[in-house]
Structure formats: structure tokens, C-alpha cells
Amino acid sequence: MPVYTYRHVDEKEADCGHFPTFVWEQPAKDWPLTKCPWCERPVERVIEAALIKVKKFDCELRDKGFTKLVRVDEGVFENRTRRSGEEKYVDRHRPETFPILEKTIED
Ligand SMILES: [Zn+2]
Known about the structure:
Elements: E1 3-8, E2 21-25, E3 43-46, H1 49-52, H2 58-63, E4 69-73, E5 76-79, E6 89-91, H3 101-104
Antiparallel strand pairs: 1-2, 1-3, 4-5, 5-6
The chain binds zinc ion.
């Protein structure tokens, strides 16, 4: 089970023995705690930096309707979320190479 870090929201010190932060083990699907299990004062979950930087795979971005262009040269971008019918490289001066928006917003 994942372990989360919680922080008391109050600046005033709580005497529950778990101030200011504590760790709490809970299933990922559970709602975050809102109250300290010991003193019942309000707490908030601390978002760990590692959790924010979840790498999105290009295919996942594409499935969500995003287009990811990576610059390879002056005015030239590699289309990392290329859909069928799209060019691998997008050239600023060649509109026919631009991502096909109809494909990304069809639903
Ligand atoms: Zn507490």
C-alpha cells in the first residue's frame, strides 16, 4: 500500500505527537485524510515532487488528444504523436506537414 505524507494545516502546534507532518499508509483509491487521526485537526496531503513528475508516454498524450512537437531544427519539429496520415516532421514553411486537427478533436 502506498504511504502518503500529511501536514497539519494549522500553524499552531498540535500536541498529538504527530506535528507537523506524519506518514499514513492507505490504498491509492482512498480519499485523502482531511483530519489528523490523533488530534482531529485539519491536515492536507503533501504532494511529493516525484509524483508530479510522472512521465507521460507519447502514445498516452496522443490518446488524450494532445500533439507533441519536438524541435529538431530551425522551424522543423518532429511530430511525436503522429497519427495516421500525418507527416513525421512538421515544417513551419510547409502547412501540409502540420498536424491534422480534425483527427485530434473528432470526438
Ligand atoms: Zn495531529
